[in-house]
Fold this protein.
Amino acid sequence: MNANRIETGKVYEITIGRNTTTVKVVSVERRVNGQLVFDCLNVKTAKRMTVSDAKRFRREIKTAKAAKTEQAKGGKPKGMLSGLDAAHKVLTEAGCPMNVREILETATQNGYCQLGGATPALTIYAAMQREIAAKGANSRFIKIERGLFAAR
């Protein structure tokens, strides 16, 4: 791995002899001769170690936090509401029962959410049904009749 790509605070897989282990880079120092030295913390044993050869770094390990921020597929775009939150907001503002397709059209027109996939209406419908079944009287939604929902 290129020494310039190794950054403080990130987690990497390194080789020690024939074995590999996971370390978090605590600091990067440049020696007098220009060589980079990496102060690391072994993730498994919590012991500090100094790695002086960047070739020992195999790859960066994406942490759960980094994976969430770099979410390439699925999830909601930053600043948008989730599908259920958008549906609740639309129903509250409308003040009358609506079917799921109308809810989604209004939510996307108002910029509350962006739902991808082949059948976003069915996804929201199922999610609203699950919330009603799980929370009962504490649910944000009421099912008026087949396909028709209102906000509590």
